[in-house]
Specification:
113 residues, 7 helices, mainly alpha, 2 domains
Length: 113
Amino acid sequence: MRTTALAVGVLLLATAVGCAGNRQQQALADADGGYSAPASIYSVMDPTSLVYTDVAAGAAPSDNPWRWTGFLLHPIGLAMDYGVNRPIYALTSKLPYLFGYTTEDSMLDSQRR
């Protein structure tokens, strides 16, 4: 348990350190008066920001590494969904009284794409 907690702590620390700013950029900003203008006055979460600004300009040049890991692992997750999860739902829906398959499970399964 301690090894797992230590490994998770190290991963979280590595991710947090990766999000920190560049010290050289911070030193240049401090020399220039400490203010750098944002790419836009609009939030990138605002749907109208696509009209008024370039969203990519507001993004960090090096994205979060967990996002790239998610991109790489997505096909594996889809294969597991179609190969394991959906057949289990199909099997349990045939004998709901035995497996405890409820109407809520049926509704969730019917909403899959």
